[in-house]
Backbone:
C-alpha cells in the first residue's frame, strides 16, 4: 500500500537484515514510518522485535539493508551515529537509569554533555547553561509527576517511577521519534497503567512512536498501524481495527488466540 | 640474669646508636614503595582493563587489547624477584634510586593484577548503562567518563586498597637487591650486633601493626562502599531540596 501524501517518511527501512552468526534474526524488514505516526510491533518472543528496534538506532549493527532517517542512511559507516541518536529516544524494558546519578542528573546528563560545547560557543556560561538544563529537567519531572524525587537515586524508585524517569530522560533530548522496547514488561501489574498513560499523552501530542509491547489494549487505542513480526519479517501490517478483527496471516491468528 | 641479658640484646637491637631510627626509615621506605607501586599499578591496570572493556563492547582497540593480554600473561607467569633483578641490574643499571626502581617493579607487577580487579569492576557495571548512554547520543568516551568509570571505581576501591596492603608485605623482597626497606633492616643491624632475634622480631611487629591498621581501614571502606544509596537515605549528599 502506498503512503498518502500527508508527510514524507521520517524513517525508511529497506530490506533490513541482521544475523548473529548463523542465526538470521531479521530477514529483510521494510517499512516506512511517517512523522507523527504511532506504530506498534507485536510478535512472539524471539521473533526479532528487540533486534529490530536496536538496529533502528544502531545499538546492533545491521548486516544488510538501509535505514534512512531524516534523509541519512544510518548504515553508512561514515555517518556519525551519535548525531542521529540524539533525535531518537529509546526506552528499555529494564529502564537502564544511570545508577550513579540522581533522578534529575539522569535527565540533565545527556543535554549537558552533548550541547555544553555549543552553549559555550553561544556565549553562555556553564552555570547559565546548567540552570537552563535543570529548569528543563524540572519541568519534565513535573510533567511526569515526580518533581519531589529530583534528588533521590534511581534505586529508591518503584519500577513505574523508574520507567517514567527513563521516558523523561529520553524526552530531554527533544527527539523526533521515541522507540519503546516492551516498556511495561518488567513492571508489576499495578504500575503498568501509569507508564501507558504517559505514553498515551505523548501520542496525543503527536510524538512519532515505535512501540514493541504485549499490551493489546494500548495497541488498539493508540496505534495507527500494528505490525506482526514473525521469523524475522513483518508478516502482517494493518490498522488496529483490521489487524485484531480480521487478521489474514494464520500465525497471527494463532498468536492472537494464544494471548487472549 | 636471663632477663637482664634479654634486655641488653633488645637495647642493642633497638636503642643503642639510635637504631630505632633505622626501622622507622625502613618502614617509611616500605610504605613509599608500596604507595608509588599502587599508583603505577592502578594506572596500568585501569588503562588495560578499560581497553579490554571497550574492545569487548565496540570491537575497537584490538591491538592495545592484545598487548594487555600479553603483558598480563608475562607478568603473572614469572617470579617478581626476577622482574626486580631485570629492572635493577639491566634496565635501570645506571640509576642509583633503588626505592624508585623497587616501586616501578612492583607497579608494573601489580598492574597485571589490578587489571583483573579493574576488569571485574567494569564487568560488574550493567551492560544497559552503556546502551542507555549511547542511545541518548553520547559517545563511548562520554558514557565511560560520566557513567561507567564512576561505577567501576566504586566497585574497585576496596580490592585496590587490599592490593596496597599486599604490596606493603610483598615488597620486602626489594632488600634482595640492597634497597633499604623495612625487610632489609634486621640483616643490617645483625651485621653489626651479630644478633638476629630482636631485629627480626621488631621488624615483624612493625609489619604486623601497619597491616592491622590498614586492614581496619579496609573494613571501614568496605562497609561504606557496600552501602547502597538507599542506606544513605537515597538522597544525594544527604541534602533534601
Ligand atoms: N546479541 C545476541 N547474540 C546472539 N543472538 C542474539 C542476540 N540478541 C538476540 N539474539 C537472538 O535473536 C533472536 C531475536 O531476539 P530478540 O530480537 O530479542 O527477540 P524479541 O525481542 O522479539 O523477543 C533470539 O533468538 C535471540 O536469541
Ligand atoms: Mg525483546
Residues:
Amino acid at each position: 500500500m502506498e503512503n498518502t501524501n500527508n508527510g514524507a517518511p521520517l524513517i525508511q527501512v529497506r530490506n533490513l537484515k541482521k544475523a548473529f552468526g548463523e542465526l538470521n534474526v531479521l530477514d529483510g524488514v521494510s517499512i516506512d514510518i511517517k512523522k507523527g505516526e504511532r506504530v506498534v510491533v507485536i510478535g512472539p518472543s524471539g521473533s526479532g522485535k528487540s533486534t529490530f528496534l536496536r538496529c533502528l538506532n544502531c545499538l546492533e549493527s545491521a548486516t544488510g539493508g538501509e535505514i534512512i532517517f531524516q534523509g541519512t542512511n544510518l548504515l553508512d559507516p561514515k555517518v556519525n551515529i551519535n548525531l542521529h541518536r540524539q533525535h531518537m529516544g529509546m526506552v528499555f524494558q529494564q529502564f537502564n537509569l544511570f545508577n550513579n546519578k540522581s533522578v534529575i542528573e539522569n535527565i540533565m546528563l545527556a543535554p549537558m554533555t552533548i550541547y555544553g560545547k555549543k552553549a559555550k560557543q553561544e556565549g553562555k556560561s556553564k552555570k547559565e547553561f546548567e540552570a537552563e538544563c535543570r529548569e528543563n529537567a524540572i519541568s519534565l519531572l513535573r510533567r511526569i509527576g515526580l518533581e519531589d524525587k529530583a534528588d533521590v537515586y534511581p534505586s529508591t524508585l518503584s519500577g513505574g517511577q523508574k520507567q517514567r524517569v527513563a521516558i523523561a530522560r529520553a524526552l530531554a533530548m527533544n527527539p523526533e521519534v521515541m522507540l519503546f522496547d516492551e516498556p511495561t514488561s518488567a513492571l508489576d501489574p499495578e504500575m503498568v497503567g501509569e507508564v501507558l498513560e504517559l505514553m498515551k499523552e505523548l501520542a496525543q501530542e503527536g510524538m512519532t512512536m515505535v512501540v514493541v509491547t504485549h499490551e493489546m489494549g494500548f495497541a488498539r487505542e493508540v496505534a495507527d498501524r500494528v505490525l506482526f513480526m514473525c521469523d524475522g519479517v513483518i508478516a502482517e501490517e494493518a490498522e488496529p481495527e483490521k489487524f485484531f478483527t480480521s487478521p489474514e496471516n494464520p500465525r497471527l491468528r494463532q498468536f492472537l488466540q494464544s494471548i487472549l | 640474669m636471663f632477663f637482664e641479658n634479654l634486655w641488653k640484646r633488645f637495647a642493642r637491637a633497638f636503642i643503642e646508636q639510635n637504631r630505632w631510627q633505622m626501622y622507622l626509615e625502613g618502614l617509611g621506605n616500605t610504605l613509599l614503595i608500596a604507595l608509588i607501586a599502587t599508583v603505577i599499578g592502578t594506572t596500568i591496570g585501569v588503562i588495560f582493563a578499560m581497553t579490554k572493556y571497550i574492545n569487548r563492547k565496540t570491537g575497537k582497540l584490538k591491538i592495545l587489547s592484545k598487548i594487555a593480554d600479553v603483558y598480563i600473561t608475562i607478568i603473572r607467569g614469572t617470579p617478581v624477584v626476577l622482574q626486580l633483578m631485570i629492572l635493577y641490574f639491566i634496565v635501570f643499571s645506571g640509576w642509583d634510586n633503588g626505592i624508585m626502581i623497587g616501586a616501578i617493579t612492583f607497579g608494573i607487577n601489580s598492574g597485571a593484577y589490578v587489571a583483573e580487579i579493574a576488569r571485574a569492576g567494569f564487568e560488574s557495571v550493567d551492560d544497559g548503562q552503556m546502551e542507555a548512554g549511547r542511545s541518548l547520543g553520547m559517545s563511548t568516551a562520554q558514557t565511560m567518563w560520566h557513567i561507567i568509570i564512576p561505577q567501576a571505581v566504586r566497585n574497585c576501591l576496596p580490592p585496590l586498597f587490599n592490593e596496597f596492603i599486599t604490596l606493603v608485605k610483598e615488597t620486602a623482597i626489594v632488600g634482595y637487591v640492597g634497597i633499604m626497606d623495612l625487610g632489609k633492616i634486621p640483616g643490617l643491624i645483625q651485621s653489626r650486633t651479630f644478633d638476629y632475634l630482636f631485629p627480626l622480631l621488631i621488624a615483624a611487629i612493625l609489619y604486623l601493626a601497619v597491616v592491622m591498621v590498614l586492614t581496619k581501614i579496609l573494613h571501614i571502606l568496605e562497609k561504606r562502599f557496600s552501602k547502597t544509596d538507599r542506606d544513605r537515605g537515597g538522597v544525594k549528599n544527604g541534602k533534601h531540596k
Q: What stands out?
A: Residues 58 and 81 of chain A are 7 Å apart (CA to CA). The first strand of chain A starts at residue 9 and ends at 20. Residues 1-5 of chain A have pLDDT under 50 and may be disordered.
